[in-house]
């Protein structure tokens, strides 16, 4: 068997197995996934924690609040759904629902990013 013929056979075999995670659907009415994408996404509700404490902090501008939120999610770690940023006329307020044990640490983290008392 020649080298080019062997390469063509191998290429054809690879083409028939790609993508392994999402085999092609038999009919066009059904998607190619076994499970709808919506069922793999978490719902919009924040996880409930009976020991949660709400921190309300004010920021001088929305950009610093967004950066502080990114830091909270990354370094906290904090679930993004446990935080909200509210923009009023001249005030930017962030609310965080954090476990009681982490409240002081998270407040210190937010203050390093420019947070003030609300």
From TrEMBL:
Ranges for region Disordered? 1-51
Q: Name the source's superkingdom.
A: Bacteria
Q: What is this protein called?
A: Uncharacterized protein
**Listed Basic and acidic residues bias regions:** 1-14
């Amino acid at each position: 068997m020649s080298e080019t013929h062997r390469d063509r056979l191998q290429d054809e075999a690879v083409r028939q197995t790609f993508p392994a995670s999402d085999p092609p659907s038999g009919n066009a009415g059904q998607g190619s996934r076994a499970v709808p994408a919506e069922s793999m996404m978490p719902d919009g509700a924040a996880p409930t924690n009976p020991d949660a404490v709400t921190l309300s902090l004010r920021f001088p501008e929305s950009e610093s609040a967004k950066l502080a939120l990114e830091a909270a999610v990354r370094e906290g770690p904090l679930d993004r759904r446990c935080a909200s940023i509210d923009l009023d006329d001249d005030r930017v307020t962030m609310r965080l629902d954090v476990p009681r044990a982490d409240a002081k640490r998270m407040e210190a983290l937010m203050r390093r990013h420019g947070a003030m008392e609300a």
